[in-house]
Structure formats: structure tokens, C-alpha cells
Amino acid sequence: MKGAFRQSMSWLHTWVGLLTGWLLFFIFLTGTAGYFDTEIDRWMQPERPLHTAELPVAEMFAIARKRLQDVAPHAEYWFVLTSNRRNVLDMRIIWTDSTRTDGKQNGREYLEISSGRPAEYRQTGGGQLLYKLHYQLHYLPDAASYWIVFLCTMFMAVAIVTGVIVHKRIFRDFFVFRPRKGQRSWLDAHNLLSVLALPFHVMITYSGLVFFAYAYMMPVVIANYGFGPGNHDRYTNELHLRAEQPGPAGFAATAAPLRPMLDEAERRWGKGTIGQIRLYNRGDANARVLLKSGQQTPARDHGALLFDGVTGALLKADVARTAPRLIGDVLLGLHEGLFAGPALRWIYFVSGLLGTAMIGAGLVLWTTKRRAKSGDTFGFRLVEGLNIGTIVGQPVAIAAYFWANRLIPVGIEGRAAWEAHAMFIVWAVMLLHAFIRPASRGWTEQLWVAAGAFGLLPLLNALTTDKHLGVTLPAGAWELAGFDLTVLAFGIAFAVVAWRLGRRHRSDREHDQRFWTPAYQETEAAE
Amino acid sequence: MAQGRSAKQGLLVRIVAAAVGGYVVAMATAICLSYGLPMRRADAVLTGVLASFVVYIAAVLWAFAARNTAHAWLGIAVPAVVAGGMAWAIGWFGAL
Description:
The structure holds two protein chains of two kinds.
Chain A: H1 2-34, H2 37-44, H3 57-71, E1 77-81, E2 91-96, E3 106-111, H4 126-132, H5 142-166, H6 170-173, H7 183-196, H8 198-211, H9 213-216, H10 218-225, H11 231-239, H12 259-269, E4 274-280, E5 288-293, E6 304-308, E7 314-316, H13 323-336, H14 342-374, H15 378-391, H16 393-407, H17 415-436, H18 439-455, H19 457-464, H20 469-475, H21 478-507, H22 509-516, H23 520-523
Chain B: H1 5-36, H2 41-65, H3 69-95
Helix pairs in contact in B: 1-2, 1-3, 2-3
């Protein structure tokens, strides 16, 4: 009975993993790149200064106010997002002016902090596009993407649980890796990669599910808040203890100075932590000022202070969160990792890469197990082609996205969209190549392409911009230099694997057989 | 696991039990918790939803681990009915 249970779990693990492996690989890969989204943003806009200027929040607000007074002097609502947080390189201003009749009641702009002018860099999807790919599948509508990614995340969760059940000796195998033993090596690699970052895999998958709760939990919302529009809003308002802002009183009043409010907020949360400044009912007797903190902790702390905009009195201070909401927020906060400093950010990145590699090794393991028995069937060939075009093809496609950023002329119509198109066209070409070429050749050739695509990026950067390693290293601009050094390291790694694999194929046929076919004497030990 | 026509049908039954049955039992549990937990309604809803993923995953595992398809469905339908019934009872008596 116990054997049967493990067998059924092993079966489930294999097929759940295979069915969604390629998409999960994509989700893990782009999500992992997303941990350095801000750094990628900066690299993809080389017109930006070497070092990001940091300003006190009061000065930032002064810049924003100057611009807002030019573009929306009569607006009743001003919203300033400061730039001293991750993901936000430029200050953002948003306004609503319902007195306007030209259809431009709502507006938004990105402001460059140094000049206070709208930011004018090259159009690019940047690191944000790459990061969003892990839940918005670009060409698909958002709703379809969310359901597909939710389904994949469920499969991932099932794969993790079944994997742990199937895996007998987690701690012993932690130290076991038998290289050059064909199938056994791939199983070892898959196990090692899984166990090494298991807490990360569990956290990232479960919290991933929580992100999709919106559509998934509809029946629970209906059971508690009824049918009809606004039921989900009633739930979130109640959860977040949100109070309605009062409407305008209808008569004017002089606004209280903002400076004491900013000081009060920084006294409570610390210097440089104000993320949002919102002014409601500007110029009216019912004016309100809402200040919110950025996300400095894993718990996604959103400190909020509400002031009377006329008297300057503090109306409402941070409301303590209830335990369930804290748990939910910690899950989301850990997933996003916005709080992470450089060291922890690298740990996130490496954990993500381990997860990506785990999925890749699992996919390869499927083929090495079956090569001898069904290597010439259509299904096998399909899996193998998808494996090559995914495991090597997807990274190449991401490199192509960076190449496109440098090669598509600046200023042409739709260049940001074409960067993304270039990525998917290259991925399609890699997939095609994987099916046309014999498998062993397919792997080596694509690995060489990957080596070039990543390894030559710093050179391309040096030829097309003035923010290359020769400048960024002496200047100590580590965010920019880090990008070039990281892709260079990827290029070298791909080259090493390509070279070793190629040598193995060339050396002799026997060696080749040993690499690809299962070692029969060891198969019964496997699993 | 899947060999022959009846085995394929059995597999299909298990997949439906896992996907649809799993969702139903997860939602029934979440609603039951959202009604029954002694906390603010919004908090109870969130707690129920956070916990329901575990129920969903467990249901999927059960759908494929069960000895046969009848067991697979029973193991999912019974908890779903119990949770749904409890939710209904709490809703009913709570309304009185």
C-alpha cells in the first residue's frame, strides 16, 4: 500500500511537471530576472546618469509641486510617488482636474529628479516588462494570463509536495551528486537543486497562489458580501480598514504647510521612507493630505497618516493590522522581496536560478529516462525539442531583448514594443531550430548561441553607449557594472557547458552512448 | 498508470475530481471558515482563502492516490458536503 502510494505520487509528479514544465521554466526565469528589475531598467536606459540622485522628500515634493502647478494648477487631486523606493527610478505625478472640459481630466507624468522635467529616455519595456512576464504572458489578455499562471502555480505546488513524498532521503541526498552517470546524474542534479532551495520554492509557490486570490476566491466573497458589482471592493475596504475620503465642502480655504506633516511622517517611519503623498480636495475646506510609507520590511508595511489639509491636524495614524492580514502581507512581501538589500537580493536571484535549473533538470530527466525505450517516438521528439528550445532558447530570447534595446534606433515609432517582439521572434526561431536539428547538435549549437548572446553583451554595450564597463567600473557604478558582469558570467557558463558537451559528442560514440542512455544497472535504484 | 481504454477513462475521472472537485472542496472549506471563525468578517474570509490552497493541493493528491475512482470522488465529495453543510448551518443559525 505504501509502495503504491509513492508510485502514484511519483506518476503525478512526473506528469504534472512535464505538462507545465516549459511554462514554469519561463515563469521562474523571468520572475528571477525581475529581482533585478530596477538594475535592468537602468541598463536599458543608458541615457540615465551614472549615479541616481537621492533627494530629501521635501525637495522632491517641491520639484513635483512646481511641475504640477504648471500642468494642473486647478486639479483637486494631486498624487506624488517619490522615487526613493525600489522599482521607481523616476518620481511620478498623477492628477485629477474635473473642472477641465477638454477630456484631459486625468494626467500622469514621470519626472526626472535632477531636472524636474518629464523624463525623456529611450522608450523601453525595461526590467519591468521582463518581471511582468512572469504573470502577464505578454500577448495574452490579462485575465487569461492570470488563470494560466495560477494553474501552473497549482501544478508547481503539487509537484513540490509529490516531489518531497517521492524523495526518500532528503538529507542524505543533499550531499550526493554522481556526475557522468547519465540518468542518475540528472536525478541527482534535480534532487540537489530542489532540496537546496526548498524553503524558497515552497514560499515562492504558496505566495504565488495568494497573488491570484482575487478571481480564485470569488465564491467566498459572494458568500460573505453578496453578488453584484463592488462586492470585492467592500471586502478589501473592510480588510484594509479603509475609510471614505470626504467630498469637497464647496468653499475655499488656505492649505496648511506640508512640511510639518512630512517631518511627522519621517519621525515615525524614518528618513527617506515616504513613498506617496496624496492631496485630496485641494484648495477646499475639506482638504486632506494622506502620506504613505514605502515598503521597507517583508511585511509590506504601508504606514499611513491622514492629515486635515487646512488645519494640519493629524486625523488618523497607522492602523495596526490584524493577524490574518499580516500573514497575507508577509507572504506577498516575501514573494516580491522589495525590502531586500543587495546581499539578500542576490540570494533571491540565486534561489530563483536554482528553481529554474531544477525545472530544467526535471525536464531533461524525463527524456534521459525514456531515450532508450521510446527515443524515436513523436512524443519523445516533441518533449526533447521543447526542452532545448526552452532551457536554452528562452535565455537566448531574453538576451535578444537586451540586444534589441541597443540595436533598435532610438526615437522610432513603437521601439519598446519591438524589443519585446524581438524576444519572442528569437524564441520562436530557437524552438524551430530545436526541432530541425538532431538533439545532441541542437543542444550544443544553441548553447554556443547563448554563450555569444550573453557573453558579447558587454561588448555591444561598449560599442553603442558610454555606460560600459570601462566607465562604470572606475566610477563604482555597481548597479550598471553588475549587469554587464552578470551577463558576461552567464556567457562564460554557457560556453563552458557547450564546449564540454561538444567535446563529449566528438570524442567517441561509446562515450556518447553512456551520456545519453540510462545506466541499466542503476535504474532500479532510481526513484 | 494509464493503459487501455477504461484506464484512460479512469484517469479522466481523476483529473476532473482533482481540478473541479478540488476547487469545490477548497471553496466550501474557505466559506465554512469565513462563517465560523471568531474574527472580523474580512479577516475570516482572508484566513479561509489562505488555508484553502492547502485543501486544494491535498484534494489533488488524494484524487490520484485513491485506490479507485469511486474512492477518489468520495474522499473529495464527503469533506465538501460536510464543510458546505457546516457553512450552511452556521449561516442559518447565525441569521436567527
